Amino acid sequence: MRSPADILYHHLLGLSTIGDLMVALLRDTPDDTTSVFDTAGRLDGRLMESGKVIEHYGIQIQVRGKVYLSTFQRALDIADFLDATKKESVAIGSDEVYTIWNVSRTGAIVPVGIETVDDRRRHLFTLNYVITVSQQN
């Protein structure tokens, strides 16, 4: 199975306002960019019949940009897109298909502050989620 961040990355490619998007890396350029990271998730018991543990994987999305309002709007667009996600099939290549059963925000959009690099000032926001995903056979 691919990492949940990589699966969600492929799902987010369907959002027209996403712009530059990466997985597990927030490059120095471009200034306006978004990245999806795997983080600590949550275990939610186990199935008694098989003993399989149900895991909700942790995801953090970092949204960075030069203009505060447009960067916040991009974060809001992502939140709205993911809030509406349920039982979505995500195809990666020709032979991998995953089902995103649920994407749940664990809090509001968080303004992290201003990142200063040389003479550039960039605003950074984070969104935190837990995701339930499985690979289709």
Can you tell me about this structure?
- The chain is of the alpha+beta class and 137 residues long.
- The chain is 18% helix and 52% strand.
- Strands 1, 2, 3, 4, 5, 6 and 7 form a 7-stranded mixed β-sheet that branches.
- The longest helix is centred in the middle third of the chain and has 16 residues, at 68-83.
- It is elongated.
- The N and C termini lie close together (11 Å).
Short summary:
The protein has 137 residues and is α+β, with helices and mostly antiparallel strands. It contains two helices and seven strands, in the order αβββαββββ.
Strand content: over 45%
CATH fold descriptor: STM4215-like
| N-to-C span | 11 Å
How are helices and strands ordered from N to C? HEEEHEEEE
User: What is the count of DSSP helices, taking H or I runs of 4+ residues?
Assistant: 2
| Low-confidence runs | none
The tally of domains stands at 1
Q: Which structural class matches the secondary elements?
A: alpha+beta
> What's the helical proportion of residues?
10-25%
Give the overall silhouette.
elongated
Q: Which architecture would the CATH scheme give at its second level?
A: 2-Layer Sandwich
Average pLDDT for all residues: 94
**Main sheet properties:** 7 strands, mixed
CATH class assignment: Alpha Beta
Rg for CA atoms: 16 Å
| Number of strand segments | 7
